[in-house]
Amino acid sequence: MSHPPLPLGEGWGEGIKALGRTENSVPLTRASRPTSPHGRGEWAPNAIVPPHGGERGRLERREATMEVLMPQLGETVTEGTISVWFKAAGDTIEKGENLFEIETDKVAMEVQATESGVLSEIRVSQGEVAPVGAIVAVIGGASQAASDTSADAKSDAQSGGSGPSKKTAAADTAPEASRGLASGAVPAASRAPAANGASRDVGGRKMELFSEIATPSVQFGSVNGPLGLKVTPLARRLARQRGIDLGAVARDVSARGGRRIHKADLEAAGGQEARGPAAPVAYEAPSVARLDGDTAEPFNRIRKQTARHLARSWATAPHVFQAVEVDFSRVDKVRKAVKADFAARTGVSLTYLPFIMRAVSVALKEFPKVNALIEGDGLVIRRNINIGVAVDLSHEGLVVPVIRDADGMTVAGLARAIDAMARKARDGKLEPSDLEGGSYSISNNGSFGTLFTAPIINGPQVAILSTDAVRKRPVVLETEDGDVIVSRPMGMVAQSFDHRAMDGAYSARFLGRVKEILETRDWAAELE
Fold first, then answer.
1. Which residue in 38, 327, 503, 522 is the catalytic one?
2. Active site residue 262
3. What is the bridge-based pairing of β-strands 92-93 and 29-31?
4. In a shared domain, residues 164 and 240
5. Do 258 and 381 have their domain in common?
6. Active site residue: 38, 341, 405, 499, which one?
7. 503 a catalytic residue
8. Are residues 465 and 499 in the same domain?
9. In order along the chain (528 residues), what is the average pLDDT of each group of 10 residues?
10. 198, 206 contact by CB (below 8 A)
11. Range of the domain at 55
């Protein structure tokens, strides 16, 4: 495990996170600092350190330890469950080997070791839950063994000579910035991402800086409070115990110019209970009398996650369902004309979904309250149009990967993006970033021949669209010569929305705009 000297200045937290990044841009590990022979300014983990000032005696090769952190696996995910440990304490680990598996209500993922070494400690056991950012394990360096050059050196080291003792080294393993992160504060430098995902040369080794795009600090509920304010551990614990809405307290503190939430701020809140929806009463399904031939089939992991997430959404969001019938004649004319050529050029089948997503992305810009999330007593309206697409995993559960900035894509671009995400989902290769940042969702059941579907909202989003089969149906058209019956490709486009966020008229106008775009847009230009 070899790293270049790393400056211990303002950017210590930034450098630590860069060292601990995975290929998925999830901060999994944090390095600890051994005693440095280079003075306060540098850290050289693999340096040969003479413990008595450098003249003689025992030479120790000190390696940094890596603290493995619970990663962020979704924008609204605050904790994860260790479902499987692939290694035991004391096992040797190679970089890239599977270390453990975590699961949340949105995703399950195997986590690989980012450095080689020895799994010296497991702090969160299999089946236990840990918050995002918590230390779940510690990896020790593979070269921690010492070599003795003389018996006198060994004797001096054991008798507490002038060199640094083990106790001293252990006490020095956590720099101030690291302590701040562990206790619930993030160093300012680590919260300031480099523009455009820039990188920095550190000791000749190019390292990506900790990027807000990959892991926004606002997502770490265990580190930052609402509105970016710090929350003292005592205040956070009291808020949880008393059911106080930290968001409301943060607004009051921020209005006064404060930057940290203390116990006194909670006392001033008067012990108000959180104003969010009441938690649903736990329901225990009754036992079922078994009949001859019955087979018990427990839910698998993904099915359980899907069930928990959707049950929570159904119990907390007042769902309203609306639908419009759309004439897909203009879409169908263009789609049929270019479908074969498009598949030959791109390897992607041109379905109705990218046309619908394109229409939705345009309408969302005009109806921003649909492109939003519920937070406490209000909305967080997204600026970006990031649309999630529900993907079925062989009838065993759902995942909702996100197409980012969908409003900036043509139909052709959306078709390719949707196909790529669906393949990753079914192959089990989704990364945490693929599931983050969604502002709206689409459930597509058209290929199964459904007439219309009333989907459950993917909370905390406020709405979800359902698309169903497009079939030729008789339609009455008004002409100068009177009404005529014609055959047209028709399909239902439906939306479930959270009544807390909007009323029926707003949702209906949004659906009407989606219908208008689908029926009138020049779709040929989208595929050129």
1. 503
2. no
3. unpaired
4. no
5. no
6. 499
7. yes
8. yes
9. 41 36 43 42 37 42 71 70 87 88 71 86 87 86 43 43 40 36 34 37 33 30 52 73 77 77 76 45 66 86 80 90 94 92 90 94 95 89 92 78 92 92 85 87 88 90 93 89 90 94 94 95 85
10. no
11. 12-215
